[in-house]
Amino acid sequence: MIIITENPLVSVLTPVHNSEDFLKESIESILEQNYDNFEFIIVDDHSTDSSWEIIKEYEAEEEKIKAFRNKKNLDIPKTRNKAFNEAEGKYYAIHDSDDISMPNRLKKQVKFLENNKEYGLVGCQMEVIDENSETIGKRNYPTSFKKIKKIITRYDPIPQPGAMIRASVIEDEIGYYNEKYTRAQDYDLWLRIASKYKIKNLDETLVKYRRHESQGLEKNFKKNLKFTLEIQRKWLLHKDFFSFSNWFIWLFKHIPLVLPKSLSIKLLNWLYYN
Predict the structure, then answer these.
(1) pLDDT at position 175, please?
(2) Which structural domain, as residue segments, surrounds residue 40?
């Protein structure tokens, strides 16, 4: 068994845009981690609500927090990349401004990456909560790299709010988020990492993912689907990811583009998880 002999710096990266209703709970969940050696980089994408004021209040009280604000709205991938540019840690933990990380999240994921140098990325399982932080479900993701490779061109196998990335992978080889993809930019990044390194999800629930009407997925469903299909097209024939069934599913997934949104979501959920 490999034992951790160091306490590496983790950079927790949080983009924010008009998250005043959930931001305090989200920030507190990081400050309450049982892993202490982290910096907390929060980038406000020119919010028009009180998000920036909330962030500044926390920054004044907590030295771990480094707050930045875009002079204009840059959208999510550019804001995430700005956080990467400011990070100094050995590992990058993605944490979204409306979600909650369990107290042992950073410690568990650091331990895995320290003990498994061939992995470039680790995720986890997720509990789903509503606007009132009440549990409404759970999302289970494949754990082994073998299983992930089988389905990675069918659907996104890593929950972005629960991802921790080895910084050297991003900085030295793979690069940042592709800013073309204003939606599904995480999926594109995971595929690029998986083409060079092993990736996996811990079989533990370490994140609470919030569903609410104002989040981007609900408002930008068709755009998200179009970008997802484009990203998948680039990787469908990759030697490590190729699957006849995934290729046929990719063709079939073009149908929801012309269906009503509610019906499209039901159809895609069936395709992804059955």
Answers:
(1) 97
(2) 10-213
Answer whether residue 189 is part of any domain.
yes
Would you say residue 121 has pLDDT above 80? yes
Query: In CATH, what number is assigned to the domain containing residue 89?
Result: 3.90.550.10
Closest CA to 166 of 201, 191, 199, 209: 199
Give the DSSP per-residue string, 126-162.
EEEE-TTS-EEEEE----SHHHHHHHTTTS--S-GGG
Task: Count structural domains, the chain.
Answer: 1
| Residue 155: CB atoms within 10 Å | 18
Any domain includes 236: no
Cα torsion at 226, 228, 233, 238 (round to 10°)?
A: 180
pLDDT at 115 over 60: yes
More confident: 239 or 273: 239
Q: What is the pTM of this model?
A: 0.92
